[in-house]
Specification:
The chain has 149 residues and is of the alpha+beta class. It is built from five helices and five strands; from the N terminus they run E-E-H-E-H-H-E-H-E-H.
Amino acid sequence: IGNPGNAGFGGIIRDSFGDWHAGFYGSCGTATSLQAALLAILHGLNLSWDKGFRNIQCELNFTLALQLILEGRNSLHPYALTIQKIQDFKLLDWDLHFNHTFRKGNMCGDELAKRGSLFQCNLQVFNGCPPFITQLVLADRKGAQYMRH
C-alpha cells in the first residue's frame, strides 16, 4: 500500500489441477513492492521445499522480480541477499522454473499479500484453505476473470 509503504507478501502452492496444498502470508513492514514480491517468492520456495514438492512452476506477476532472479548475480542491488537466496534454490535437486503470469492470474497470491500487510506476523502458513480465500481458489480453478478493486 504505497511504494514504499505498508507491505505484505503472500502466495499459494497448488498442484497441476489447481488444488490447494498450502498458502502463506506475512508482513514486510514498510517496504517496496519489489521487496514484498521477492519475499513472497523466497517464502514460497522454502515452503515448497520443506513440504517435499520437487516439480515447481513458480509464477509471479512482477516482471522486474523475474528479471532479477533469472539474471546473474548483482551484489550491489539493495535486495541482493534475498535474490541470492532465491537463486540458490535453483541449485537444489528439483525441477524449478520461474514464469510470468498476469496479475489476474495471481489473484489468490494478491489477496494473501493484502492480508499479510494487515497483520504484524513474519509468516503465517495455511495447510488448509482459509475461508477468506476459498471463493478465489475455486474461481481460479475454473479460469474465472476478475475485476480488480
